[in-house]
Every structure is written in structure tokens, then in C-alpha cells.
Amino acid sequence: MVATWSGCTDLEEEPIGILAPETFFTTTDNLQAAVDGAYGHIASEEFWGRKFTLSLLLRGDMVTIGDPTTSSRRIEVDEFRMNGDNGMVTSFWPRSYAIIGSTNYAIEGAASVEGTEEEVNAIVAQARFVRAFTYYHLVRIFGEVPYIDFAVREAEALSSIEKTSVEEIYEGIIEDLEFAKTWLPDQQPFRSMPSKGTAASYLASVYLTIGNWQGAYDEATFVINNSGRFGYALEADFQDLFDATKADGLVEHIFSIDFKGLDVISGAPGIDFLPPVTGMRGPDIEGWSVAVPTVAVFNSFDDNDYRKAVSFDTEAVFDGVTVPWQDFGMANRGVSRPHIAKYYRFPGTAGNNNRDSDHNYGAMRYAEVLLIAAEASNELSGPTGEAVDYINQIRARARNAAGTMNTFPEDLTSGLSKDQLRDAILEERRIELAFEFKRWYDIKRLNLGMEVFGPTSMEPQTNFDSTRDYLFPLPDDELGRNPNLLPQNPGY
Fold it and tell me: Has this prediction a pTM greater than 0.90?
């Protein structure tokens, strides 16, 4: 297992064992530098910039492979044919533990830092939020993983570590988020730094995932009822959420992953490849057509829904001629399907292929908190007016098409049954959060795999096996280095 530390002023990774927290951390600036290093690891190509997020996209039922000549490791994830040597997993697993390693160093180092309790704990709370954020992804993807909550000084310490139960991992996540909610400020200078509302929003999401409806409702409504205090609101125009030139001022972002345009230092954090892997390939268009929605997914969006126009690219200019999506396949290795527009259309300052974008990805948006509150409320109390109102706030925003007010989507009306409202909320999540790395987690937590990958679904996948595929395989190289991590996840 790889665990590394890095600071914001020196992005070269330092192996654990070179630095000791009690000797390095003497000021709050040192402490913040370690946390900044963790943010840098999140905004890396191996994690949010491609490997990890692309895996989540391909695992769900909203996109599948476009270019059939793309790397086999991607095709294996998409078609449920992956094993423990899959190159996606063996990239984002060590980067995940690099994030965790940075936070553990900051948390332990805080004991040596001079400053008031409020000053020190406000930075420790950032570290504990990031640690919780990372483990929350790991536990949903792999199930039992090693839960490391200490600074590793010698690599040998990892050779005997064992997996931690899912229940214990969630206990650690909740404990970290509760600490963060207590000590973080109401607002931060940037949405790429967590605030009190960020911690509460993730608590709501965690409780939703584990089926604690009351906890999810309490935390989500805490954020909603204090939205003015935290500076949260729905953006007026849905398109603005995916325009990198406007990303720094978005009030809807509760936690964002911040990339720096044209940061082309090889291997450095800040490099984003999501726009090209989702963008279309053509003679004078430089996307790669890797993760592409099926036509059935495109058709499942109502043509009158502005979110469809924002989410999909349906025409492009090839050799000076505008062509519809039905003709995208004219390009070598292109594919005649609508493509994801959320990341490729407005990448801000970017390089070739729109790589190295300037996006701030909304890992948690205020709209999602409204959706969590609606779902939890419905599960607790049935189809109340409160739950319906949360959905209608999102639908009202969707009716604003760049300043032109539409009549679609109409408000949900009263009179729905609990089951009908549950289905409506899940569908609203699918449309509102399309291609934002949420769909696989919904499929998993609601056990929808046999339905959404069946022969009449939007993305049939005959290899899907519900006894195996709700978990990814653990990396074989980790199992080889440390047999205590055995057994491999079932079916692999």
C-alpha cells in the first residue's frame, strides 16, 4: 500500500518515514500545507481527474464505451469483466491512500502546533473531512478496506495491517464528519475547502447510504434551514454549473474539486482529463469518445427539459460543416451517439483535447441536499408536502433555460403514493445529477443492478452478477504484498 505526504508548495511526494509529524509541524501554516497536499491528491489524474471518476461513470447505466479501441482496462470496468489487476483500480487505490496519508499526518501533527484550539481544530477539521470523504468512496466501492487513521512512519507498519469491517469504517467516517461539523467555519474563502455545511451535507449522504433516514433528514434539513448562513442556493441557470469560467463564484457548490487550467507538469496534481474522455472524436474535434451515453439514455430525457440540452452534445462541426449526432461516426473511431456536454463544452482555460481544464467539479451540490431531504422525508413520513416542495424547487430552476422560462418540467403534484414519490425522486436524481458520478452509488445502495443492466434496459450488460459486481476487486498487487488483506472480494 502506498501512503504519501505532500504540501501545497512542494507537490513532489515524500514517502512516509522521511518526515515525522511531531518534528515537522510547528505552525498552523505547516498544518494547512499538509491539508492542501491532500486536496492536491484529490485533484489528480489518478483520482478525480480521470481514473476514479471515469470508473464510476462506466460502472453505472448512463454511459458505456464509445471508442472500441480504447484501453481494455476501461472496457473491463464497463462490461463487468474486471479483475484485481485492472489498471483503473491499481491507479486510484494508491492515490486514495495518498490522500488519507496526508490527512493523517496533519491530524497527528496538530498536537505539536502552536495556536488556539479554534485555530488548530479548524484545520484539523479540514483534514478529518477529507479523510472521511475518501473513505466514504472507498467503502462504497470496495467494501472492507484497511482503515488507517494514524501517520505511518515506516512502510513495514503496513505489512501486517488487516481489512476493517464496513460498519467500523462508517463509524470512523461519521466521527470525522461530526468533528468537522463542530469545528469548521460557516463559510470558507473557496468551495474547494469544506465548511460546516459541507460536513453536514456529507453526513446526510452517508446516513442516506446506510439507510438511517432520520439522520439523513436531520442533517439535510439542517443545511437547508441554514442555507443563508452557509451561502447556499440553487444557481439560476443550470448551465452555469458546468461552465469553468464561472466556477469560482457558484453558490450551489457545497464541495468542489478545483483544477487549474493548463497545469501540464507531468504527474502533478491539478491535471484534468475528464473533458477529453467524455468529448466527441472527429477530424477537427479532439475528444476521445470513451464514456458516451447510449441513445436510449439520451431518449430517456424529455426534449423539453433544459437539463437535456445542458447535459448532451448533439451536434458538432466537422471540417467546417455542422453535423448531427447521427453522423458523429464519420470520424475514425468516433461513435454516432450524443456525447456528454457537462465537461467538454465549457472547460475554461484548457489545452489540446480540452485536457488540463479549469473546471471546479461539484462533488456535492445544494440540489443534491434537497434530493436527500426529499428521499429521507418520504421514507420517514410518506409523500408529504415538504418532500414534494424540495423536488419542485429543483424543477423550478430547470424551467429557466438561460433566461427563457419554460413550462417543463412541471411541479410534482400532491396525491402521489409513497412508492410513486420514491420513484419520482430517484428519477429526479438521475436527470439532475446525470454524469456527476452519483448514479453507480444509487444503483448499489438500492440494489438496482439486475433491473438497470437487464436485457430491456438502457444499457444491457449480460455480465452483471449481483453476487459479485456491487464491489470492485481489491488490487492484486496489494494482496500479494500483504496476505492479511485476503480474501479477495467475492467472485474475483
Answer: yes
